[in-house]
Structures are given as C-alpha cells and as structure tokens.
Design brief:
The complex is a heterodimer of chains A (about 190) and B (about 350).
Chain A (H helix, E strand, L loop, with lengths): L1 E4 L8 E4 L2 E11 L7 E8 L5 E7 L3 E4 L3 E10 L3 E6 L5 E5 L15 E7 L2 E6 L3 E9 L12 E6 L4 E5 L7 E5 L5 E5 L2
Antiparallel strand pairs in A: 1-6, 2-3, 2-6, 3-4, 4-5, 7-8, 7-10, 8-9, 10-11, 12-13, 12-15, 13-14, 15-16
Chain B lengths: L4 H20 L3 E2 L5 E2 L12 E5 L5 E6 L4 H9 L5 E8 L12 E10 L3 H18 L6 H4 L3 E4 H8 L4 H7 L17 H13 L12 H13 L9 E7 L14 E9 L2 E8 L4 H11 L9 H7 L5 E7 H9 L19
Parallel strand pairs in B: 1-5, 7-8
Antiparallel strand pairs in B: 2-4, 3-4, 5-6, 6-11, 8-9, 9-10, 10-11
Helix pairs in contact in B: 1-3, 1-11, 2-10, 7-8, 9-10
Classes of the chains: A mainly beta (about 190), B alpha+beta (about 350).
Chain lengths: ~190, ~350
C-alpha cells in the first residue's frame, strides 16, 4: 500500500477509500477563487460498482493500492460468475459478473485478458478499447431502403445489441467501441 | 495542428465586441506590464519566476503577473477613470486540464463609483457580446438572465445548514481584518466546519490541522458547488468575509461583497466591491505575504491613499468563449498551446 498525493492521482489510479477499493473514473482539478488547490474525483467502487464523488486537497495523502497485473484466460461464464485461469500458474478462480457487467459483451471463451488483482480479489478486467465481434442476428435490409445514414440493430455473438448501418449482415464482423458500445466499422477479414 | 479555426475567428470577434462595449460606456483600455519585481501576494497562487540580468552579469528575480489587478488599482489610485484590460495572465503550479491553463487571457475591468451589482449587469452584457461573436446557437444555460444565489442560500439548500447562522454564532459578523487577534477569532468556525465534515463522513485529509478557509472549501466543493443549478448563468454572491481577499466586508454581516459567476457549472468570473481602506489593505498584504517572494509593502499605501470607491471584475475569456461555443474544454481555442506532456 503506497501513499500518493491527491494532486498526482490520474484517471485509472486504484485507491483505497474507507477500506473499499476504487478506480478513478474522472479527475478534475479545482482551484476555488481564493483557496488551496483541490482535486475532484469520481470513483467507481470495484466491489459494488457504486459511484462516489469526493474532493481532496491536492496535498492530501491518499492510499494507492499496489495491484498485480495477471494474464488470465477467460474460460466461461455460468451466468453469475466469470471463470478465469491464470496462464502462468494455471490456478482457476471466479469473478462476480455483477461487478464487471460490461465485460460479458467483450470476452469470448478462450481469450486472454489482463486482470488487475489485489490480494485474492479481481478489481478490474482490462478490456481492449475496441473489439471485433461477429454479428449473430441481423434483420434483413428492406429492399429499396437507400436512405444514407439509415440504421438498424444487430445482436453480436456475445449478445450485445448494437446500432449499425443498414448494410451490415448476419455473419459479418463489426468493430465496437468497448466504452460506449457503439459501432465503429465493418471488418473485412 | 490541433486548433479550431472558427474559434480563432470568434475569439477575435469577441475581443472587438468587448472593446466596443467598454469604449461606448466610457471605459479606458489600458495595457500594463506582464513582468514585475513585486507581485501581489496571494498565498494560493504559484508564480512563474524569471531573472533580469544586468550588463555586469548580476541578476535579480522578476515574475510574470498572475493578473493585472495591482496595476489597474494603481492607475485608479492615481486618478484614472473607469478602465479595463484584456491581457495574458500566468499561473504556475496548476495542472493543465479541461479548464486550466498556465497562461490564459483575462478581461479585467473596474467601474469607478460602481457596485458589484452594477458589474453583474455589465457581465450580462459581456456574455451577450460573446454570444454575438460566436456562430453557434446557445441555449438558456448560456444566454439566460444571470440568476443570483447567495452563499447562505446555497448552503441551506445543498449542505443542509445555514452558513450565516454558523458565522454569526462564531462571532464573525462585521469582522474586520484589522481587529487584534483576527486569526484567533476563527477558532469557533474552524471547529464548526470540522464537525460538519466529520458528521457527513466526507473523505478527508488532515482536517484536524487545517485552516478555516481550507475546511470551508472542502465543504463548499464537495456539497455545494457541484450541485448549483446550471440551467442559466449563476452568480454566487456573499462569500464569507473571513476568507482573505481584497473584497470589502459588508458592514454588520459576516459577508464580503463578492460574487463568482458560473456558466454550465464552470467558474468564469469573479467580482469584488473593492476594499479601499489603507489599513485593511496593509493587513491583507501582511497576512498573505509570509510565504511569498518579494512583497512590496509600499503597495497598500500607494493604492489605499487614492483608490476611489469602485467594483472590479475579472473574466477568464478562454473559458467564456468555450462555454458560449458549447465546447466541453478549452481544447482547440488557443493557437500553439504548450502541454504538460509535450515531447521534448
């Protein structure tokens, strides 16, 4: 456990506040008219996913969590838990889905991810910024519908519902922005 | 190149509009030094320092001004009429992020015989001028009439207690920074803020050793500022007088004659009914000076002996432009900005 000055905290820093692990989602520097410099933080609780907004003076000491980065293979999901295997030690362990809801749309069985671990707890599943996914279900484009910019919804192999241009067909691969869940482009392998 | 070409053109139109407005109102535009050997002492502002080298190779420190305040007040004390300046200001130590730059452009004006209320009307006009200079449609949150909320109202609404009662009960009505034992008289309010922070279980640093104004800002920034309504521009008025500033105290109240303007939740301007008493100015200099380099104690005398009754306002023009344009940061508004992480 290391100490860090609040002024040095960046987006993505892992912090311990009131004995709960958090990741910094947003950091804003505030300098009130006539006062010390402060840092306003939006933190995501890595156990409950609850959001906490706090303000620290830039000089405050905060507890930074010394995390481990572990490379793991995603084995499968049973609906409540993700099952992973540490690729170095072959140890298997579980991660509750509810704390990492978003991850289920971007992990395919057998793929490898970097996990942020602290003691025996998985704090974060590091997803790539973009992910290529197969379209599992798509409505047929309506004949004659040539309006540019027309969109429809498709379902990917991971069960993610994505708004895409009308020309995307079932079985095609699309690139999705992981943070926003938005379609980016069609991938022609 | 990262800048937004249309914003560069809009900035020029904004400056023209502001100059025309003040010219029509009879304000004099002045241009004052960016380099000084005796900066205004403000304990919370970090300065950029450089060195003046004499022909014989010896040198002495000079500083880039954090605002033109001291010069404009000197001009007023020397008999100038109402005046304004659009100029660059420099603040070290701040992190560069969405709304902060180490170098930025400030509009500062002083209206002789004007009050902070008069200056709020001028502020509304400056927003209008900027709206006119910008080619995008702005909503009520920018173009609406400025809403006034006092600090006490804001605390009652968002922090759940009356700041006025707390300040009064702590003996801070009509406090005077020249009174003997002035800092000691903050013991009660310091304890009050500390217990509010503890009661609300706000994550905090070493609050047992912090000053009243740091504790106040912790409460204000955590509970109040973020919650202020942003559907129209907002002037937060009547700030606690115990915070050391050059705003005059409002007699028989714990408040200073000061407002801060927020647009879309971002602080854009601040205004004082100006303190003009020589003793009070001297006291401010002495309180703010200990950690500051080279304070010049002739200033309070020079300013205090001739400063007319007036109100001054400072506006961050980069922020105003960005907010009126509907931007979410200052990015792209400056030609050739430096960045903290620029490769060397």
């Amino acid at each position: 456990m290391g100490m860090i000055k609040a002024g040095a905290i960046a987006k993505g820093t892992y912090l311990l506040e009131k004995n709960e692990p958090f990741i910094v989602a947003e950091r804003e520097f505030v300098n009130p008219g006539k006062g010390s410099a402060f840092v306003r933080l939006k933190l995501k609780n890595l156990r409950s996913a609850a959001v906490l907004k706090i303000t620290h003076k830039s000089q405050d000491n905060c507890e930074e969590i010394d995390v481990d980065e572990v490379e793991c293979q995603f084995l499968y999901s049973d609906g409540t838990l993700f099952h992973f295997m540490d690729t170095a030690t072959f140890d298997q362990f579980e991660v509750p889905i509810k704390t990492h809801e978003n991850a289920r749309f971007y992990m395919l069985e057998g793929e490898t991810f970097k996990l942020t671990r602290w003691n025996d707890e998985t704090l974060d599943i590091r997803l790539p910024p973009k992910k290529d996914l197969l379209v599992a279900e798509a409505e047929e484009a309506v004949k004659g519908d040539t309006v540019t910019g027309a969109t429809k919804y498709v379902i990917t192999e991971t069960n993610l519902k994505v708004k895409v241009p009308i020309f995307i067909k079932q079985g095609e691969k699309i690139r999705v922005n992981v943070e926003s869940g938005e379609y980016q482009e069609r991938i022609n392998d | 190149m990262q800048f937004k070409p249309e914003a560069i053109i809009e900035r020029a139109a904004m400056y023209r509009g502001i100059r025309d407005y003040f010219d029509n109102c009879g304000y004099l535009e002045v241009d004052t030094p960016l380099l000084t050997d005796s900066p205004i002492p403000e304990s919370h502002i970090e300065l950029f320092q450089t060195r003046k080298v004499r022909p014989d190779g010896t040198s002495y420190p000079l500083y880039l001004v954090p605002s033109p305040e001291i010069w404009l007040k000197m001009a007023l004390a020397s008999g100038s009429s109402s005046l304004f300046q659009i100029g660059r200001c420099f603040r070290n130590g701040e992190q560069m992020d969405k709304w902060h730059r180490n170098e930025f452009t400030m509009l500062e004006w002083y209206g002789v015989d004007k009050t902070s209320g008069d200056n709020l009307l001028v502020m509304q006009e400056i927003i209008k001028v900027t709206l006119h200079a910008v080619n995008s449609e702005a909503g009520e949150e920018v173009s609406g009439n400025i809403r006034e909320i006092s600090m006490d109202e804001a605390f009652r609404e968002f922090a759940g207690f009356s700041l006025e009662s707390a300040l009064e009960e702590s003996g801070l009505s009509g406090i005077n920074r020249t009174s003997p034992g002035y800092p000691a008289s903050l013991a009660d309010i310091t304890e009050f803020f500390r217990s509010r922070l503890k009661e609300k279980n706000l994550p905090s640093g070493d609050i047992d050793r912090e000053s009243a104004d740091d504790l106040f800002h912790r409460l204000f920034l955590t509970l109040v500022e973020d919650a202020l309504p942003a559907d129209r521009p907002l002037a937060l008025t009547h700030w606690p007088a115990f915070i050391p500033t050059l705003a005059r105290g409002i007699p028989d109240t714990p408040w200073a004659d000061r407002w801060e303007l927020y647009i879309r939740g971002v602080e854009v301007a601040n205004c004082y009914g100006e303190e003009t008493g020589e003793e009070l100015l001297k006291n401010y200099w002495e309180n703010e000076s200990p950690e500051k380099p080279d304070p010049d104690f002739r200033w309070p005398q020079l300013i205090g002996r001739g400063m007319p009754s007036c109100s001054g306002t400072a506006v961050g023009l980069d922020r105003l432009l960005a907010l009126v344009r509907g931007d979410d940061s200052l990015k792209g508004l400056d030609l050739f900005p430096i960045h903290d992480n620029m490769p060397r």
